[in-house]
Every structure is written in C-alpha cells, then in structure tokens.
Write a structure and sequence with these properties.
Helices cover 40% and strands 5% of the residues. The protein is built from 4 helices and 2 strands, in the order H-E-H-H-E-H. The chain has helices at residues 2-13, 19-22, 28-33, 68-79; strands spanning 17-18, 39-40.
Length: 85
C-alpha cells in the first residue's frame, strides 16, 4: 500500500539499514504500512548474536558513516514519529 511504499522510499533515499529487511521479518508489510521501521545504526552488521535472528553478526566496520545520524533523524521526521528508541 501507500504507507509501505512511502516508508520504503524514506529508507532507500536515506540509505538506512533496517532490522525488518536484514532479518527477513514476515511482518514488514504490517509495520511499514503504518510508517514504522526498526532502523539499525552503524551499518548492517549487528554486534549481538541472538539465536532467533537472521541478521549478520560481528564487529562494526572500522569507518562509521558520520552522516548516518543525520539521515536517521531526517527519516524519523519524515515518518512523523514521536518516539524513537
């Protein structure tokens, strides 16, 4: 639907990585249609190793993207979120 498409557009335009996509979440359509997404920071590698999760684990990259925080903030604003964790 329209909400899903808009959420996907915001994620792509801001070059953001989401748990939704990296983990292959089956509920991505439901969440994204409501403008909700779980964004990963510091790249696409998670430092945790949860046994139930499908996200690649390891050490974060040596060179972090200094502009990522700004892109996350812009996406949060575009999605109209009032609460971010």
């Amino acid at each position: 639907g329209e909400g899903y498409t808009e959420t996907a557009k915001i994620m792509r335009e801001n070059k953001l990585v989401t748990v939704c996509e990296e983990a292959g979440c089956p509920n991505v359509g439901e969440c994204w249609s409501q403008g909700h997404a779980t964004m990963m920071i510091m790249g696409e590698v998670c430092t945790r190793a949860c046994t139930f999760c499908n996200i690649a684990t390891g050490k974060p990259p040596e060179d972090l993207d200094a502009f990522e925080p700004g892109r996350v903030a812009f996406a949060v604003e575009k999605l109209g979120l009032n609460h971010v964790v």
